[in-house]
Each structure stands twice: as structure tokens, then as C-alpha cells.
Amino acid sequence: MLRNEVRATLRAEVLLGLKKIGFGTGRIVGLGGHVEPGETAAEAAVREVAEESGVRVEVEDLRVGGTVTFRFPARPKWNQIVSVFVADRFSGRPEESDEIVPQWFEVDDLPFTKMWDDARLWLTRVLAGEQISMEIIFADDCETVSDARFSAVA
């Protein structure tokens, strides 16, 4: 979720959240989650953002940011393929849920030290408007990136 505020200068922000439970607990993460049967990835993104933060977005307001494939050789059950979306239009104010403490962050000052190690490799590209395809391979510690393969999508 991106928002622009007019002050002395134009300032872009992104809505992220502190994960309170489940996979990624204690980290700042993007909002989202699993796709339910019969749901598209975009529909799941809309539902998950509303459940996690109370913010409403519409499928037609989503911009595809690409896909990121996460591989955890030491924990293959953690492997996943994530569809990434960005929305510039939304309604509502972010509110804490059972799962997430949402917070706006300035795009030029993202909290990478509190996020998964991979975020520094792709998040700013997506927020800048690129559409990406990326594979991230985590080291045996399941914390640090050991390899990353990036390709821009035309």
C-alpha cells in the first residue's frame, strides 16, 4: 500500500506491519497471506490487507509488482511463491489486528534491519514501479540470503 502526502515536498510511504503471530513473527512484513480455494492472488491480497489492517483496497486498484519465489533448503516446508501487488488507492485507517501492527514507513527509509533479509533486494524496485521475477535462496540459518536470481519482467 503506497500513500503520498503533500507537505513541503511530496513524500511516499508504504504500509507494512509488525508480525505478531505465525510465520515471520517479530519482523516487519508486507501485508498479505495465503490464497483461499477459488480466490485469485489479487483477491487474496485484498482480503488479507483488510483482515490484517482494516484498510480496504479494490482488485482493480492493484498493480502487479511481480513474483518472488522463496526457497529454504534447510526447511523446505517454508518454500513459497509470493505474488506481489502495490495499491495507490485505498480507504480506511490502518488498525492493529490479532496478526499485524500496521505502520506507515517512508519509502526512502524502510526498516530493512527489522525485515526478512530478502526485502532489501526487491522491495524498493517494486515500489519504484518495476515488475520483477525473483528467486531468493536462504542459507541454512533460514535468516540470511545465500543466493538471489533477479529478472525484470517486460
Which key phrases capture this entry?
magnesium, Nucleoside Triphosphate Pyrophosphohydrolase, 8-oxo-7,8-dihydroguanosine triphosphate pyrophosphatase activity, metal-binding, four-stranded mixed beta sheet, mainly beta, 2 helices, 154 residues
How would you describe what is shown here?
With 154 residues, the chain is mainly beta. It has a single domain (2-152), classed as Nucleoside Triphosphate Pyrophosphohydrolase (Alpha-Beta Complex), CATH 3.90.79.10. The chain is 14% helix and 38% strand. It is built from two helices and eight strands. It has helices spanning 41-53, 119-127, and strands at 2-6, 10-19, 28-30, 62-71, 80-87, 100-106, 132-138, 145-152. Strands 1, 2, 3 and 6 form a four-stranded antiparallel sheet that branches. The protein has a four-stranded mixed sheet with strand order 5-4-7-8. The longest helix has 13 residues, at 41-53. The protein is globular, with a radius of gyration of 15 Å. The chain starts with a strand and ends with a strand.
Layout of helices and strands, plus pairs?
Blueprint: E1 2-6, E2 10-19, E3 28-30, H1 41-53, E4 62-71, E5 80-87, E6 100-106, H2 119-127, E7 132-138, E8 145-152
Parallel strand pairs: 4-7
Antiparallel strand pairs: 1-2, 2-3, 2-6, 4-5, 7-8
**Mean of pLDDT:** 92
CATH architecture: Alpha-Beta Complex
Spell out the CATH superfamily.
Answer: Nucleoside Triphosphate Pyrophosphohydrolase
Question: What name does the CATH topology carry?
Answer: Nucleoside Triphosphate Pyrophosphohydrolase
Strand percentage lies at: 35-45%
The count of strands amounts to 8
Low-confidence stretches: 4-9
Q: Kindly report how far apart the N and C termini lie.
A: 23 Å
Class by alpha and beta content:
mainly beta
Helical content stands at 10-25%
The general outline is globular
Largest sheet: 4 strands, antiparallel
Tell me the count of domains: 1
Backbone CA Rg? 15 Å
Number of H- or I-type helical stretches? 2
Order of helices and strands: EEEHEEEHEE
The CATH class, by name, is Alpha Beta
